[in-house]
Amino acid sequence: MRGRFIVLEGADGTGTTTQARALADHLIAKGRTVHVTAEPSRGPIGALIRQMLGGERPREAIHRELALLFAADRLDHLAREIEPKLVAGVDVISDRYVLSSLVYQSLDLPLPWIESLNQHAPPAEVTVLLTLPVDVALARVLGRAGQREVFDAREVQARVHARYLELAQRAHARVVDGDGAIAEVSARLCAAVDAALGT
Q: What is the C-alpha separation between 194 and 116, in angstroms, rounded?
């Protein structure tokens, strides 16, 4: 039996990475085999994306390159990691997928072009959007160790949050409130995924 493809989406700092692990634990407890992954992927194109995101060039100077690279990384990610797991009957949870490209890249580029770049990426079975107030999410991002990225400015993140809510329907995303204790958010997320899967 083919595995189920589940995607968690959300602006930086909304807890998608933490909640992906919690959702995996929930599904494992129900007897499923689960693989957690993320985009950008750990493949060669994903490594290049991370390098560009943390670089010195402003976002406006690399936005076309990033849009192309994210689309290419996604297809590579699907072929190299996601699809083989699904075929083997493993549920795959991805921290980010197509909706993130539609949101982030359409800040600078026409949305129809971004959609065309991603037209060969099949939809997830379930997509969940985690939401959080902009300043709460940004405080988490700025509290992390490491280099700042080209999308970290508050005005950019405010646009990202608004854009996620605007475009959520394009990915048929279920919106889950990410505010509150980790366990509370996990309970809301798991209930949303169970309802979507009919389990």
A: 31
pLDDT confidence bin for 150, thresholds 50/70/90: low
**Stated pTM of the model:** 0.92
Distances (CA, A) of 108 to 16, 29, 114, 151, 183: 24, 42, 10, 12, 36
Q: Given a cut of 60, is residue 147 above it in pLDDT?
A: no
Q: How far apart are CA 54 and CA 191, in angstroms?
A: 35
Residue 61 is predicted with a pLDDT of: 72
